[in-house]
Amino acid sequence: MQQADIIINNGTVLTMDKKNTVIKNGLVCVKGDTISRMGSGDNVPIEAEKIIDAHGGLILPGLINGHTHAAMSLFRGLADDLPLMEWLNNYIFPAESRIDADFVFTGTLLACAEMIMSGTTTFCDMYLFEKEAASAARQAKMRCLVGEVLYDFPSPNYGPVEKGLEYTESLIKKWQDDPLVSVAVEPHSLFTCSPDLLISANELALSYKVPLIIHVAETLNEVADVKEKHGKPPVEYLHSLGLLGPHLIADHCVHVNEQDISKMAKYGTKVIHNPESNMKLASGIAPVTELLARGVTVGLGTDGCASNNNLDIFTEMDMAAKLQKIQTMDPTVLDAATVLRMATIEGAKALGMEDITGSLETGKKADIIIVDVDKPHLTPMYNPYSHIVYAARGNDVSHSIINGQLVMEDRKLLTLDIEEIMERAKEKAIKVREWVF
Question: What band does 43 get if pLDDT is binned at 50, 70 and 90?
Answer without folding.
Answer: low
